[in-house]
Predict the 3D structure of the following.
Amino acid sequence: MIAHTAVVALAFAGCTEHREPPPPDPPHMAWGLVLHGGAGVITRAKLTPEHEAAIRADLERALRAAYAVLARGGSSTDAVPAAITILEDSPLFNAGKGAVFTHDGINELDAAIMNGRAHTAGAVAGVRTIKNPILLAKAVMDGGRYVMLAGSGAEAFAATAGIECRKDAEVIDETPGAYKPIDAVMHAQRDLVAIVHTLRQVICVKG
């Protein structure tokens, strides 16, 4: 009986010695990326497969640009502009080159960036001549003197910070096609918006 038990124990021991080691744990990433292609209404009926593929391709290029910065040890405040400049340079997004026109037929662009660890931020609003507003917003943040600049003041600051202006050929000659009175917009969103005052203005919606 003792000998039989010993043989069984040796058999189990032999199986244990030849067992394959478990696979190593996957590497832990200390960061992640989330990219939003913008707000607006694009119905499936208007979104062709070719248009969707083009949008996804530019989103992927933006993600890869940000990933490359972080993968080589760069900061998140460098990775964000790397991604956003691609969206601003694409005609497919409501930013930069593809921005929606105002009721007066011009582009007024905004951008903002924040560093949560350093408690710093930079923003620009209503700029008309800046190619990449996100780069100007970062320059505002890095400068440290301001938090937000708007309009001509932001553009004057851009000249001192070496931020590139856009050329006329880079502005898409797009005819605003969907101006909606504020009353119509508020009526459509009446379940979400509490109207306190009636705003007499026109909103341009790109869809």
Summary: The first strand starts at residue 109 and ends at 115. The chain has two domains: 49-176, 177-207. Helices lie at 2-17, 49-71, 76-89, 133-143, 151-161, 182-188.
